[in-house]
Sequence to fold (398 residues):
Amino acid sequence: MKRNECIAMLLAGGEGKRLAPLTSKLAKPAVPFGGHYRIIDFPLSNCVNSGINTVGVLTQYEAESLHEHIGEGEPWGFNPSLLPSYNTEQKEYTGTADAIYKNIAYIDEQNPEHVLVLSGDHIYHMNYREMLDAHIQQGSDATISVMEVPWEEASRFGVMSVDNNLKITEFAEKPEKPESNLASMGIYLFRWDYLKEHLIQDADDPNSSHDFGKDVIPKMLSSNDALHAFRFQGYWRDVGTVESLWEAHMDVLNQTDLILEQEDWPMFTRPWRTKLTAHRNRPLENMDSLIHDTCTFEGKAKRSVIFCGAEIGKLSTVKDSVVMPNVKIGKGVHVEHAIIGEGAVIKDGAVVKGSPGQVIVVGPHETVLPKPSVRTQPSRLLQEVYEKGRLRANVSSS
Fold:
C-alpha cells in the first residue's frame, strides 16, 4: 500500500458547556462564526490549503450537527471520514488521546508516516505544511505548535520551556505558577509508529485520564524523546467561552490580525439554509460592521457582525454585538454587547443589553419579548401595588 505522508485527525467532539446556550443543540465546532462560517471550517480549510486531504473528524456531543455540515466534504474538495464515538465499542471518547486510540484501525488503513492532531474549536489560519517540514527536518518524534501569550494568561494553557534548538525541556499543563509563556495551541504532529506505541501504553494505564496534555505528552517528555516546539506567529484564539467568541468577532471587524477573506488562503464552508431576500441599501454609518448580503437590514449597526439570513426591522439598533444566522429582530429593538443565537426572535420594542465585560446571550430559536412597563398596567393592579407597599410601611414603623 502506498505510504501516506501525513493525515489529520480532527478532534470535534466537545460539548462546549462554557458556550451555553449556543451549544444546547450544537457541537462546539459547529457554532456559527464570522458571518456565514462555522468554527470547524477553520481547521478544515487549513487542511485543504496545506495539501492535507486525508482527514478523520472525531465527533461525540451532538455529532449530527457536524455530520450534516460536513456531509461528503464537497465544499472542501475532499471527503473527510466521520468517526463518531457511537461507532466505537465503548460508545464514547473519554479523552483526547483515547479518541485517537479508539481509531487506530482507521489510521492504520491510511498507512501514514505522520499524524497531525487538531482541535475543532480554534480560530486561526495556519499552513500545516510548514510545521510538517520543520518536524521532518528536525527528526522529531513529536512537534507541538506553540505561541507566546501574555504572562498573566499562561496558567490557562499547557506551557513549555525550550532550548536554543526548540527542543522541549519542560511541559506543564495549566500550572499555577508558569515558568514560561510559550503556550501549546493543541496542535500536535507525531510520527505514527511513535504515537501508536504511546497510545497503547496510555490505554493500559488505569491511572491515566487519557489526555494528550495531562498524560501522553508528559510521558513522552519523561523519556527524553525528540519533542520539539513549532513557533506560530499568526492569529490564533480558543473560542471556548462566550466572551472569547464575542472578542474573536470583534477581531474580525478590526481587519488587522484576523482577516477572513484572503486570496491566498481561501475559506470553505457549506452554505446556510436561508431565505434569500434582496437586502436594503445600507447607510454609511454601518460601514464599521460586517453585514451579510442576504440580510434584510433596515436598522442601524455599530461594530457588529450580522450573519446570513438575518432580518432587522426599522428603528432597531445593533451595537457591539453578534447576530447569528436567520435571526429575526423586530422594529424598535435595541441590542448591545450581545450574541443572538441562530434562529432567535427578538420582538418589537425588546431590549437585549449587556455591558463591557458582560456579554448577554440569547439562545438559538429563543424568543425575547419586550418587558412590560408599569405605566401600561391596569389601574386596578397599580392600586394593589400601592396598597401593599403602604401596608408594609405601616408594619415597619410600628
